[in-house]
Input
Amino acid sequence: MRVLFAWEVGRNFGHVTKLAEVARPLAKRKAELFFALQNPAAIRSFAQGLDYKVFQAPYFPVRPRPGQQRGPSLIYPDDLRPCGYESPADLAGLIMAWQSLYDLIKPDVLVAQAAPTALLAARAYKFKKVTLGAGYDVPPRSSPMPSLRYWENIDNDVIKDHEAFVLNNVNEALSIAGLPKLKTFADLLEVDAEFLTTFEELDHYPDRASLSKNKPDYCGPFYALGSGQAMDWNKNAQKRIFAYLRPEASHFGPCVEALSHLPDDHDVIIAAPGIPVKLQEQLQKPSFRIVNGAVKLDKIIKTCDLGISHGSSGIAAAFALNGVPQLLLPGHIEQMMFARSIGRTKSGRGLAGEFGSREVAELIERLLNEGTFKEAAVNLAEKYKDYNPADLADKIAGEVIKMGSGK
Output
């Protein structure tokens, strides 16, 4: 049986780690593995020991166009516009490139993770289609598509106009590629199986149940705690804080400044992939350690008093399901939606927009010292105490095998 894993949209390597996790149990079941990835080099670190073939995924590099100004994304189709959905000709080229891959590989099952154009091109083929992702990657299939900014009062006619623009481009592209048109944008997302890798409390869409045709089937989130550099907390630390921060993010500076001025009895560990060596050396001290890369969390997360991140669903879900209060610093709409899901659980708070180190420091103080955040985090972790993310990949692999073999 041949399984093709596809990743097309987004930069974070979390996309490919999910696919690699599912690939491992499939390899044990003797499936032939193929990957079509936006960044083919990414698979090397996560699929060691596996026998597979990897291809460059057809994708449209996101880049600003001269003189082009686009407003904020209101619905999922808006987020696809810079990914080739702005132009029917560009999108048609991507569709036909995906079809060429399908003709070459001849998969029995397509597993799509943030790969909408792969799904669009696959509509002409009889192989099984599967989507895999957290709430944002697998949006509710409604018409029109639901607002990403559900907390804002956005006129429904505006939502419909945004969808109509993208749907028109999609249908023109399908015509160029010789494929039938879609009636609604949600038709693009119709698959044989949908693996929603989150829990209801952590879903980017809080109203999914009322928007979906069927009751949402939450599988639980993917996250791994055992990869990266091993670290231990300082023995005499009174408060323990772990942060996963991107040095290129606008919120990196204010957050690091706030953390660096905490008392020496607060132990701070920061995973900051790509941090300049000089800056790393300047900031290091016994109670403030920065790692240029990932940090193993399996030993330290249970005794962590505060987790800080940008709101990517993997690390934030790990904090949530281990009873750790959170400070989230979202940089884009997907992270903003997840930050709000943590806010709804009352186990954390987020900061967005313009702010400085003072605002970060004040919120750190609240999260560390107001017991209600810890209580809510522990209650959520207790609810899902029997959940093991290591079992998720095996469960999904079993379903994929059934579909591919026609059982």
In short: Residues 2-220+389-404 form a domain with the Rossmann fold fold (CATH 3.40.50.2000).
